[in-house]
Amino acid sequence: MFPTFKHKPKQEYKSYICTICGYVYDEAKGCLESKVEAGTRWDDLTEDWECPHCDGGKEDFNAL
User: Could you tell me which residue ranges the Rubredoxin-like domain spans (predicted)?
Assistant: First the structure.
C-alpha cells in the first residue's frame, strides 16, 4: 500500500498595475527596487509604499 499525499492548493498570486506609469507589481516576484521580497502580498505592503518608477501611491494601482 502506498501513502496518500494531500496536495496543497497552489497559491495564487495577483498583479497590480500603476495607472500613472504602467509599472506592474507582481506578488510572486516582489519588487527589487523597493526591497520587497518575492511572495509579498499586496495587502502586506506598507500603506506608504510607492511605485518605484513614478512614486504613485497604492491608491494609484488597479488589480489585473
Answer: 13-64
DSSP H or E segment with residue 57: none
Domain range enclosing 51: 11-64
Sheet with 15-18: strands ordered across: 24-26, 15-18, 61-63
How confident is the prediction for the chain on average, in pLDDT? 91
For 3-12, what is each residue's pLDDT tens digit? Answer: 655 655 567 9
For residue 43, the domain's CATH number is 2.20.28.10
d(CA 24, CA 53): 10
Look at the alpha carbons of 17, 18, 23, 27 in this order and tell me if their dihedral is positive or negative: negative
